Amino acid sequence: MRFDKESHMLHGRPGKTAVLLINLGTPDEFRPASVRRYLREFLSDPRVVEIPAVIWRPLLRFVILPLRSRQSAKKYATIWTPGGSPLRLYTERQTTALRKLLHLADYDVLVEYGMRYGNPPIREKIRELRQAGAERILVLPLYPQYSSSTTATAMDEVFRVLCHLRNQPDIRTVGHYYDHPSYIDALRQQIESYWEQHGRPDFDNGDRLLLSFHGMPRRTFDLGDPYHDQCVKTVKLLVAALHLSEMECFLTFQSRFGPAKWLQPYTEPMLQKLGHLGTHRVDVFCPGFTSDCLETLEEICQRGRQVFTAAGGTVFHFIPSLNVSSAWITALGEIVACHLQGWPVLSKLD
């Protein structure tokens, strides 16, 4: 059947409004087979890897997946929790917290989350929302800065699902919120709260704060992707909110893959450089990641620490991502409320 069948029972119900949060995704387990399935889906996306399929697919199948699946599985094993993947756990908790916040504000809305790759898939969640009577869906990717390899591919999947619905809901999408005041304030509060508990860096004596974002091929930037510029704007706003200078706080990019040039400066070489220069303390925070995951917990907290101390640095601090901080949930609520304007969302009074 080309289009999904829909029950006639839905037609008489009052239409509901829904919010669908979208995150990147994660393997179901840290075992190589599960990681391989996840990486195959992720790295087969032409939004993620812009290499002609005739070249990329054989390379992916016969070289990258066999090697990287085992390597990544070992990394996932170091961050896995008794409840599963940190990314999934934090995304679930954010969804629950946002649902409670909106209901406390008398919003009669459905709130769910889906993953672009892996489980739960976006298609499944949209169909569940339709079965629950959602006639209006606000799609909010959990990526503050827009990129074609994150936000755009999430939206691609949403609209692919709509292509198979006989009765399509109204859709609104949130492209970015990199400069939203509440997001910036949540970042500020996360950093300052950490410093209240663990001490503030001695910036006058050379301690430094690194703001590390996920990298992107330089070619993608040259083709017009706005991600880099939005990261720069986020950093400027956050540095001003923290009352720091550009000499005390650096913007870097992590998670390089392959031999091509990516956005610079790179995080790991910067950590190594600071260690060689005798920097006593460095703190690293990842503003673009709203949930801790492999890239923050293994790449930064574990490997970044090793690189810095091996190069001569003394004290390394990893500042956790926003996760389920109250300031971040409040910011999510404000972003959602802004984009829901004009839709019927308030609970009806008895």
What is the strand and helix layout of this fold?
Layout: E1 16-26, H1 32-43, H2 53-79, H3 86-104, E2 109-118, H4 122-131, E3 134-141, H5 148-162, E4 170-173, H6 181-198, E5 208-214, H7 218-222, H8 227-242, E6 249-254, H9 267-276, E7 281-285, H10 294-297, H11 299-310, E8 315-318, H12 326-339
Parallel strand pairs: 1-2, 1-3, 3-4, 5-6, 5-7, 7-8
Helix pairs in contact: 1-2, 3-12, 6-8, 6-12, 9-11
InterPro entries: Ferrochelatase, Ferrochelatase_AS, Ferrochelatase_C, Ferrochelatase_N
Enzyme class: lyase
Family: Belongs to the ferrochelatase family.
Protein described:
This protein has 350 residues and is α/β, with parallel strands linked by helices. 46% of the residues lie in helices and 16% in strands. The protein is built from twelve helices and eight strands. The strands form two sheets. Strands 2-1-3-4 form a four-stranded parallel β-sheet, sandwiched between helices. α5 links the parallel β3 and β4 (170-173). The termini are far apart. The relative contact order is 0.15. Belongs to the ferrochelatase family. It comes from Candidatus Pandoraea novymonadis. Keywords: Cytoplasm, Heme biosynthesis, Iron, Lyase, Metal-binding, Porphyrin biosynthesis.
Largest sheet: 4 strands, parallel
What overall geometry do the principal axes of the alpha carbons give? globular
As a percent range, the share of helical residues equals 40-55%
Structure summary, number of beta strands: 8
What's the number of helices?
12
Residue-averaged pLDDT, rounded? 96
Compute the gyration radius: what is it?
21 Å
Class from helix and strand fractions: alpha/beta
Q: Give the N-terminus to C-terminus distance in angstroms.
A: 43 Å
Q: Helix-strand pattern, N to C?
A: EHHHEHEHEHEHHEHEHHEH
How much β-strand is present in the residues? 15-25%
Strand order across the largest sheet: 2-1-3-4
Ranges where pLDDT stays below 50 over 5 or more residues in a row are: none
**In terms of quaternary structure, what is this?**
single chain
Pathway: Porphyrin-containing compound metabolism; protoheme biosynthesis; protoheme from protoporphyrin-IX: step 1/1
EC number: 4.98.1.1
Main location: cytoplasm
Family: Belongs to the ferrochelatase family.
